[in-house]
Amino acid sequence: MTRDARGRALVVIPARMASTRLPDKPLADIDGRPMIVHVLEQARAADIGPIIVACDDARIAVAVETAGGRAILTDPALASGSDRVHAAAEAADPDGAFETILNLQGDVPMIEPDAIRAAFDPLEDPAVDIGTIATEIRDAAKRDDPGFVKTVGTPVGDERLRALYFTRSTAPSGPGPLYQHLGIYAYRRAALARFVALPPSCLERRESLEQLRALEAGMRIDVSLIGSAPMDVNTPEDLEAVRAALRHRRSLSS
After folding, report:
1. Do 19 and 25 form a contact (C-beta atoms < 8 A)?
2. How confident is the model at residue 108 (pLDDT cuts 50, 70, 90)?
3. pLDDT tens digits, one per residue of 49-58
4. Which of 136, 137, 161, 152 has its CA nearest to residue 224?
5. Residue 4 has pLDDT above 80, yes or no
6. How far apart are CA 6 and CA 118, in angstroms?
7. Residue among 48, 57, 66 nearest 26 (CA)
8. Do 126 and 153 contact (CB within 8 A), yes or no?
């Protein structure tokens, strides 16, 4: 991916306050700063393009703007993060100057810049509508855990799969690696507009996996394989784990 190509991407970080398992999640304190600011800083380090936080609460906007970022308030009634990303992209770039929209989840404060860039890489192939990332599952307990979404795909190059399915089940069967899908998406602008205009699909509702809507509609998703999974934050226990990991990182660098 060239620097010029990256400059044509708009990075949008969806963030909402209404998390049932961890209330006010975007503002959770991690090392003296809100979690959303940590994600913003990792997005800056990835150097893909301008960054916007699509949020549903003015308190998130204040935190982002205090850190020198840009926030756009979106309708709290929007059904999903993808809808918030599309609404913010249309508000920020109504003329469609950016060819690619990167959806970076707002609950991955330790995501590596290389992992963010990896989601964008599949769009170098003009046949791909959406790029995303996955990593091999090396913990046996996670192989059968429905909380770890599996990518089922066919190899199309070094460290690259064409997605055939996503599932909470243990799949595919037989010997070989399983891959955990990580919910970061790089959309071609037209693909994102098409995606959010589609109604929820049969398999999407059955698996509770939004990306299946795209596959059922015949859209192509390619997956970059990365070395490790970023720690996402969904529960108080996850938050404490991230805090501990950052403390450990600081102790190693001091």
Report:
1. yes
2. very high
3. 999 999 999 9
4. 161
5. no
6. 11
7. 57
8. no
For residue 171, what are its two tokens? 């799949």
Residue 181 structure tokens:
């899908």
Burial 34-48 (b: 16+ CB within 10 A, else e): bbbbbbbbbbeebeb
Identify the helix (H) or strand (E) that includes residue 247.
helix 236-253
Q: Which amino acid is at 70?
A: R
Q: Strands 130-136 and 150-157: what pairing?
A: unpaired
Phi, psi of 34 (to 5 degrees): -65, 150
Unique residue bearing structure tokens 């209330």: 23
Q: At what angle do helices 81-92 and 189-197 cross, to 10 degrees?
A: 130
| Interatomic CA distance for residues 101 and 189, integer angstroms | 6
CA distance 81 to 105: 8
Structure tokens at 209: 């996996």
Q: Is the pLDDT of residue 250 over 90?
A: no
Cα distance between residue 4 and residue 87, in whole Å:
25
Q: Which residues contact 7 (CB under 8 A, 6 or more apart)?
A: 49
